[in-house]
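Please, structure for the following, as tokens.
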Amino acid sequence: MEMVVSFPGGKKVDAQYRGFTIQTDQSIDNGGESSAPAPFDFFLASIGTCAGIYVLQFCQHRNIPTEKIRLIQRMERNGDTRMVERVVVGVRVPSDFPQNYRAAMARSAELCAVKKHMEQPPRFSVVTSVASE
């Protein structure tokens, strides 16, 4: 697997991956144009959307409508380090959602691959190489 990151100008940083261009930018406060989400925003969104795909599949396999289901993700930061210390993903269902599926659906969200990778993070390396002309 390979992702190519490029710098299209200003504070923008793009990633090309699997035929998609993922555009990022910094907020105006951080010198950017706010033309796209910041990289950290994508990181946080990957948690909720990953949990969401498991909830979606759970409901689709049981023919449960998903139009009124929402995942609400809240992040708690450490006041000193400003690092996210806790992520809570809540699944909000309509009143007519089958009671007998509520706990199982929440467990399905726990299967999120992004969450699992954060719980057992990969090792990171940063290396420099010289491009051949």
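Helices lie at 39-61, 102-109, 113-119. The longest helix spans residues 39-61.
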